[in-house]
Amino acid sequence: MKSFFYLYLLVISALLTSAFAQSSISAPECIAPFYHGVASGDPLSDRVIIWTRITPVDFGLTLNGSYHVATDNQFNNIVASGTYSTDSTKDFTVKIDVTGLNPNTFYYYEFEHNGAYSLVGRTKTLPLGAVDNMRLAVVSCASLESGYFNSYEAIANRNDVDAVLMLGDYIYEYESQGFSPNNNVDRTWQPAEEITELNDYRLRYNSYRLDYALRKLHQNFPWICIWDDHETANDSYPGGADNHQANEGPWAQRMSAGKKAYFEWIPIRPKAPGNQEIFRTFELGDLAKIIMLDTRLEGRDQQVGANDPGFNDTTRTILGPAQFNWFKNELSSTAQPWKIIGNQVMIGAIEIFGTPINTDSWDGYPAERQKLFNHLTSNNIDNMVVLTGDIHTSWAVNLKNGNTPVGVEMVTPSVTSSGVPINLSGLITLQNPDIKYVELTKRGFMLVDITEQRVQGDWYNVNTIDQMNPGSTCVKSYVTNNGSNELILANTAATGHGAFNQELLGPCSRFYVALAETTTPKVIGVYPNPSNDFIKLQTINLSPKDIHIYSADGKQQQVSIEVSDWENGLTIVSLDVQKLMPGSYTITIEKGKMQSFRFEKTN
Asked: Omega of the bond prior to 528 within 30 degrees of 0, cis?
């Protein structure tokens, strides 16, 4: 949540009481050891990334397996297959860039390890050449502790989406109850403390990816993702962050840890091994080009207030010189009629009595925004449609260079993160006539429907985030016609084209996993290994008496153990190993199916 909304977030939450607790975070036994499901992302016309994560029996081993990609959900026509290996250096995640695929084609994929199979995922490549229609679901800002991810399930239940655009804040970095907690739900992320190191970020992703709705949406559609700030820390930039303090270690180290965990857990294609740039493009045949930006960690100068002496400095940048020049070149060279911009922070101006009120957005970098708008005007570039997340609320904005329209912006509401609990829409639109629609209180998502003639944005609100209920309603629709660079109100939501003709159905089958209780004790995460102080075990249905530590000579070691409550039998068991001598040790789970794995004590 950005500074614009801080004033309004101090209301209500402390007055609410827990009405009920539904189980939405689970690790169903029937999909072991692939508890985190499957995912796909960064589709191109001939390739797509497929992803999974294996929960090992021994967290010290290298794991091997195979994958299969087919044109049918029964895998009668396998078109790609191969083997993989993974280990603790990747947090046991698996990413395969499957190549040699046909454009605009549906594919199904699965992973195998030691004779066990993952869920079946479905994905789709992008078109090449002529295409009549593309349909994108747009999401951002998913705070797990703020409510249920009903937006994710609502999209997963649709049959008319080509890809999901995630515009950032996939996770949040705060300590438990540290950001917009919802006392109507029983949802707690792990680890409980603020995440600052690599294994903390890994564990936070691990806890998120056990969410039922998130797992389901990843299984159903390919995702195209960019990060915003909370994948590292609030209001971050390359040199620091609002939510990073000196006692939390070097910022560069924390930022690197957040990026590494992101590339492990998100189905994103690196530009080259080790490259962590996320600005990139995707071509939707002859219809549109998607241009994904990094307004956060690539080249942004530190945020300053509107009254700062350097606010209007013409050298201040939100993209960095290299990315800004790349962006201008992409806009100038795009052959398709539509330029769809995936962007973290709002580009349109929001002013109250002439003063920008959110200088973390492009409003804080007015000179660079003016340079961009001048480039659009001087080169007669039409049909720029900016899709934005970040501010947890819904907006439709005409973008103008003076009085000249240069594009439009559509801002998606958050999945769960808090907006503004009071209605300021009238004041905002009165002060900002180019803002055609603003809604500040509802959660949901957008559907963006693209044809050669127009792009239509439909804003959907979910019925609730306090219960597991994927019901949603289209509350507003705006259209920009080819060449107009302006928004007009549409009377009805766009009609989807119908995507997948083979469903993923059947509770707890390879095709689909409903919510299911887990009874078998197990460990599904070990963070970190090696360690010199504490080891966090992410466990299911284990108590401290079931966990034993042995030194290399077979002697049992006594350590202090703390347990934090979590949802549906999932807990974090923290082992204090500070008093152990350096060396190799074995952790043994002596309940249910016995599990043993090694760890190294350093220092």
From this structure: yes
Quick check: 140 and 295 in contact, CB under 8 A? Answer: no
pLDDT band at 599 (very low <50, low <70, confident <90, very high): confident
Cα angle 138, 476, 422; round to 5:
90
Give the DSSP H/E element, type plus range, for residue 322.
Answer: helix 321-333
Under CATH, which number does the domain 523-601 receive? 2.60.40.10
Q: Tell whether pTM > 0.85.
A: yes
The answer to whether residue 518 scores a pLDDT higher than 50 is yes
**Pure H helices in 184-272:** 198-208, 212-220, 251-265
Rounded Cα gap, residues 149 and 153, in angstroms: 7
3-16+126-489 is classed in which CATH architecture?
Answer: 4-Layer Sandwich (3.60)
pLDDT of residue 20: 35
Domain boundaries in the chain?
3-16+126-489, 32-123, 523-601
Peptide bond into 33 cis (omega under 30): yes
pLDDT-derived band of residue 5, with 50, 70 and 90 as boundaries?
A: very low
**pLDDT (tens digit, 9 = 90+) per residue, 84-143?**
999 999 999 999 999 999 999 999 999 999 999 999 999 999 999 999 999 999 999 999
- Phi, psi (5° rounding) for residue 515? -60, 135
Buried b (16+ CB within 10 A) or exposed e, 441-451: bbbbbbbbbbb
* Distance from C-alpha of 163 to C-alpha of 462, rounded to nearest angstrom: 20
For residues 226 and 457, give the distance between their C-alpha atoms in angstroms, rounded to a whole number. 20
8 A C-beta contact, residue 205 and residue 323? no
How is 134-187 classified by DSSP, letter by letter? Answer: EEEEEE----GGG---HHHHHHHT-S--SEEEE-S-SS--SPTTSS---TTS--
Q: Do domains 3-16+126-489 and 32-123 have the same CATH topology?
A: no
Residue 417: pLDDT above 80?
yes
Give 235's DSSP letter: T
Based on C-alpha coordinates, what's the Rg of the chain? 24
- Residues 32-123: name the CATH superfamily: Purple acid phosphatase-like, N-terminal (2.60.40.380)
Kindly tell me if the per-residue pLDDT of 18 is higher than 70. Answer: no
Pick left, alpha or beta for residue 25 (phi over 0 → left; psi -120 to 50 → alpha; otherwise beta): beta
